[in-house]
Specification:
It is a single chain. The chain contains eleven helices and no strands. The protein is an all-alpha fold. It is flat.
């Protein structure tokens, strides 16, 4: 027991030393500049906030501390930062602290999993007796914890894209109606965003942001292409291409949107028919595992009971 305790203390000291090294690394000029920029960009009204409930202020404080940790320990650097920022935008997180929050979550979750291996690692039959294996187990848990936020972010991106893809044909129909009524592109996009607020908040968010950018005089082609890059769906790219070409060559938007809406409806029906055709092969294994044994018991059960009774009588 004493040896195990000393091993746990050594692992804790090793983790503390690694954390201190990361903190020293976070004192680089780049980290100090990021911290100064964060304090400068922070809203000036933070010091004069109105009183709020503790239940509302605690999550904000926690997020701020995680973001500060992510800025002090920049675990995501270089090209990975831009890629992660694009994935955050695709998931709907456009706050300035989103990248810092994800970096802080990677450190926090990795550290929690690494600490969790200390009491549970000693219970393993082979790993608990060898210090090197326990150290490797802690390092592996830390790496897994660093990867979990990105997997969760990828899941959020997929869910958001699926929701947008399911609602986009209806949005195209509404755009056709709005443009046919004489509304401009900005007014039509804003109107469709308002109509779809309760159905698909993700698409409403994208349309609202695009309408706001177009209202302040941004380049139409650049703004629409930015929306297509954030969503990342072929249907959205086709819509953006149609709108850009209509703005560039002066063709009627209503006719182009009506053609695109019919095409998307046809593609949606083809996708539904494809899913319906795949149901029969997918139902084969559940039928063999769950239904066929039950049918066999019902059909052959009485005969088996009679045979058992006959053999007992003999």
């Amino acid at each position: 027991m004493n040896a195990d305790i000393w091993r746990d203390i050594a692992l804790l000291l090793l983790l503390a030393g690694f954390t201190l090294w990361l903190l020293r690394r976070g004192k680089s000029p780049r980290a100090r500049i990021a911290e100064r920029m964060r304090q400068t960009v922070a809203p000036a009204s933070a010091d004069i906030d109105t009183p709020a409930d503790d239940g509302e202020r605690m999550p904000q404080r926690l997020i701020q501390r995680i973001a500060a940790l992510g800025e002090r320990l920049p675990v995501v650097q270089g090209e990975n930062r831009s890629k992660l920022a694009n994935r955050l935008a695709a998931a709907g997180f456009r706050d300035l602290r989103a990248l810092s929050v994800v970096s802080g979550l990677k450190i926090v979750i990795g550290g929690c999993l690494a600490l969790a291996t200390i009491p549970f690692g000693g219970e393993l039959p082979v790993v608990g007796q060898i210090f090197a294996l326990r150290a490797l187990l802690m390092a592996g848990a830390f790496v897994i914890g660093m990867m979990l936020p990105e997997y969760a972010l990828g899941w959020l991106v997929r869910q958001r894209r699926n929701a947008i893809a399911a609602t986009l044909p209806d949005a195209l129909d509404l755009l056709v109606i709005c443009t046919n009524a004489g509304n401009s592109l900005v007014v039509a996009i804003r109107r469709v965003a308002a109509e779809l607020h309760g159905i698909c908040p993700a698409l409403t968010d994208e349309f609202t942001l695009t309408a706001d950018e177009l209202s302040i005089g941004s380049d139409v082609s650049q703004t629409l292409n930015a929306m297509a890059d954030r969503v990342g769906l072929p249907t959205m790219r086709a819509l953006v291409s149609t709108l850009v070409q209509s703005q560039k060559y002066g063709t009627p938007i209503t006719q182009a949107l009506r053609t695109l809406s019919r095409t998307e409806r046809a593609m949606q029906m083809v996708a539904l028919e494809e899913k319906a055709a795949k149901l029969a092969p997918k139902m084969t294994i559940p039928m063999m595992v769950f239904i066929m044994p039950t049918v066999g018991l019902i059909a052959a059960g009485p005969a088996i009971i009679q045979f058992i009774a006959v053999f007992h009588a003999l």
